[in-house]
Amino acid sequence: MSQSVHVRPFRDLLDSGGVVEDPERIATYTMDQRQLFTGSTFAVLKPATTQQVADIVRLAAHYGIGIVPQGGNTSYCGGATPDASGRQVIVSLERMDRIREIDPVSMSISVDAGAILKNVQDAAAAAGLLLPLSLGAEASCRIGGNIGTNAGGLSVVRYGMTRDLLLGIEAVLADGTVVSDMRKLRKNNTGYDVKQCFVGSEGTLGIVTGAVLRLAPLPTRRATAWLKLAKDAPIAELLTLIHRESAYLLTTFEFMTSRSITLATEAITDPPSLGAGPGGAVLVEFASSSRHLDLDELMEAVLAEAIETGCVDDALLAQSGSQRTAMWRLRETIPEGEKRRNGSVKHDISVPLSSIQRFLDLAGSQVRSYDADLELSVYGHVGDGNLHYNVLVPRDVDRLEFTKRIESSLSLQLYDTAAALGGTFSAEHGVGRFKKHLLARYSDPGRIAAMRRIKTAFDPADIMNAGAIVCPMGGKSAS
Ligand code: FAD
Ligand code: 2HG
Ligand code: ZN
Questions:
Q1: What pTM was computed for the model?
Q2: What positions does the domain FAD-binding PCMH-type occupy (predicted)?
Q3: Using a 6 Å CB cutoff, which residues line ligand 2?
Q4: Residue 76 per-residue DSSP state
Q5: Which CATH architecture has domain 342-436?
Q6: How many CB atoms lie within 10 A of CB 445?
Q7: What is the pLDDT of residues 159-184, one digit of tens each?
């Protein structure tokens, strides 16, 4: 089928703003966030309503055209990128970005799936509430993408991942059926929890068009501290102490090695000089909506106890909003710092918290014996047992070649180690196209069989994001 034959039926369905055919504009949608792979498509479709999404899906199914849903295209595993066949169309939700309703009493917000995360946070804040999902890409990623990847981020230790925030959903299935379940109920045990099927499904089961998200009281008090860790500080024990003593007010526990901090520092024009101890640094935050609590006092007491244990060499409690912002900026700029250098080979691993130190020790020796000259940038959401154990691409080498080499050798050793400790090769970034082979390598066959049955039930013809995660039963390969 020629390109124009592909696109014609969609042109009839959407207004002119709803079909992008210009190759230059298309190119901005077909390259993945890490610039590792460029796919191909004949058009980007931008529906404005759920009905249009359903019509697109029906047409695509009729013509045997594949669909790749896309939000902000900030994901790391190539799940939002079409394959090279040119037979998949991108459906971008960017025109569906409305805040539908805020219910301050039920503490919920209903939105279109194309709403930008930051805009949803702001709308909630304007109503005195918090959408407790926060990540470095929040100014570009969209709620449908957050649901598609089950995004985690910087406050999971207190509020959980996207999965934990989802109360209701609206989605279009692979045959155009609309699932309309935009309820804000906290309790609803009426059979299978269908909305949860879409969480982490990376566009392979349907297109999410709307969501109801759980909100929390907006913190009015915060205490933010930068802890410099002693050599070989037992991070999990430090976390346990801080968690226990924080009266459930701990919202963030972010670990950073000094190399990661330096990378961020180099990427900031006027960087704060916070530094790290020999064991790295941790950003800790307590937050509360109560005006009756003195969080600084609580944090000071907790930090004093942490210093007494010998885990922490030194701690700085933010004395002003700008000091707090500077601490956060340093943490959030690490991915940008890596990118500016020449990128990194990313390992988004998680292990049970009790094994985090063991992972760091074992992985460190694996890297040293693989190539003692390799540089690492290790940081992450240790409060959730999640480390970004990234290998920096040397400045003077070809990034793609280096990435390929590391991913086919050292990465597997690191993932083996995580797996042996009961961990995983993808904590929060998903599987997409890039990590499909890892799913086959590390997942229990029964689990993969169950996933393939779910895929088959939702999308037997493999219309929805074929090539990501798993294929249906009877498809080309085991996963
Ligand atoms: P996209 O990249 O557009 O899509 C992601 C997947 O979801 C794709 O498979 C796509 O097909 C599918 N999808 C998109 N929209 C829909 C829809 N409406 N219906 C069904 N499927 C859909 N991630 C974290 O978890 N934690 C972090 O801390 C974090 N920090 C980041 C920091 C930076 C600087 C960057 C660049 C990325 C970061 N990410 C992080 C990764 C990324 O931002 C998240 O995965 C995010 O949830 C992706 O949202 P998106 O809208 O960009 O989705
Ligand atoms: C973060 O925690 C993101 O900042 C990005 O998940 C991780 O770039 C990375 O490896
Ligand atoms: Zn992360």
A1: 0.97
A2: 37-218
A3: 136, 334-335, 346, 380, 388, 390
A4: S
A5: 2-Layer Sandwich (3.30)
A6: 10
A7: 999 999 999 999 999 999 999 999 99
